[in-house]
Design brief:
Pfam family, one: Acetyltransf_3
CATH class: Alpha Beta
CATH architecture: 3-Layer(aba) Sandwich
Strand order of the largest sheet: 7-8-6-5-4-3-2-1-9
Number of strands: 9
Oligomer: single chain
GO molecular function: transferase activity
EC number: 2.-.-.-
Largest sheet: 9 strands, mixed
CATH topology: Aminopeptidase
CATH superfamily: Gcn5-related N-acetyltransferase (GNAT)
Strand content: 25-35%
Number of helices: 8
Number of domains: 1
Protein name: GNAT family protein
InterPro entries: Acyl_CoA_acyltransferase, GNAT_dom, Ribosomal_N-acetyltransferase
Helix content: 25-40%
Length: 219
C-alpha cells in the first residue's frame, strides 16, 4: 500500500461534524469543482497569490496541480500538509498546515479556504480548531501563525475566537495595488486556554512522525 511508503496519506483528523484528510484523487476533483464555482467575492482578494483570479477551469486545474505538487517536495525540514475538509461525506474546502525546520522551531502556519456555499456555518472555525489540535496536542508544536488580508474579516474572526494575538502586519502588492496582511500568533498556552470544547480524534499519526520532524514531542 502507498501508506507503507508515504504514511501521511493515511492521516485522519475528525471532529463532531468534519473529517480532515490528505485529498484523494476523487477529493481533488471535488475541490477543483468547488474552486471553479467560486471561493470568495471577486471584488476582494484574500490570498497572497491571487490564484482565484483565473477563469473557472484555471482555478480548478491549479487546485489539482498544487495539491499534487506538495507531496513531491515534502521533506521533514520543510513540509506542507493540505487536508481536504469533508462534512457528511462531502468535500467543502481545504485546511492546510506548513512548517519549516519543525524539529527545531516547533512552529506551524495555517491557511484555508471554503467553497462559497459552505461559508458562514462555523466550518472554518471547526476545521482550524482541528488542525491546531493536530499541531499542539499531537505533534508538540509550541506556536502557530496565521494571517488575514485586509477585508478578510471571517478569517480574522476565527483567529481571534481561537485565542491568537496580533503579531504585526506586512505590505504586499496584490492585483497591482498595496494590500496589508494582518498577522496573528498563537502559543501553546494560549491555545490551551481558548480551545473549543470539541471531541477531536487523530488516527494514522504514529508512522507519520518522522515525516513531520516530530519524533521528539516532549515539552
Amino acid at each position: 500500500m502507498i501508506t507503507d511508503h508515504f504514511p501521511i496519506l493515511g492521516l485522519r483528523v475528525r471532529t463532531p461534524r468534519l473529517e480532515l484528510r490528505p485529498p484523494s484523487l476523487d477529493d481533488l476533483s471535488a475541490l477543483a469543482d468547488l474552486a471553479a464555482d467560486g471561493v470568495h467575492d471577486p471584488a476582494v482578494m484574500p490570498f497572497l497569490v491571487p490564484w482565484t483570479d483565473q477563469p473557472p477551469a484555471g482555478r480548478a486545474l491549479s487546485v489539482i496541480q498544487y495539491n499534487l505538487g506538495v507531496y513531491s517536495r515534502w521533506t521533514p525540514e520543510e513540509w506542507h500538509l493540505p487536508l481536504a475538509v469533508l462534512r457528511e461525506g462531502r468535500v467543502v474546502g481545504v485546511q492546510d498546515m506548513t512548517a519549516r525546520d519543525f524539529a527545531v522551531t516547533r512552529q506551524v502556519s495555517t491557511g484555508s479556504w471554503l467553497g462559497l456555499e459552505h461559508q458562514g456555518k462555523g466550518i472554518g472555525t471547526e476545521m482550524r480548531a482541528a488542525v491546531l489540535h493536530l499541531a499542539f496536542a499531537e505533534l508538540g508544536a509550541r506556536e502557530a501563525a496565521s494571517g488575514a488580508m485586509e477585508g478578510n474579516t471571517p478569517s480574522e474572526r476565527v483567529s481571534r475566537r481561537l485565542g491568537y494575538r496580533d503579531d504585526g502586519t506586512a505590505l504586499f502588492a496584490i492585483r497591482g495595488a498595496p494590500l496589508r496582511e494582518r498577522r496573528f500568533r498563537l502559543t501553546r498556552e494560549e491555545w490551551a486556554s481558548h480551545r473549543l470544547d470539541l471531541s477531536i480524534t487523530v488516527t494514522g499519526l504514529e508512522p507519520c512522525l518522522p515525516f513531520f520532524g516530530a519524533e521528539d514531542r516532549s515539552e
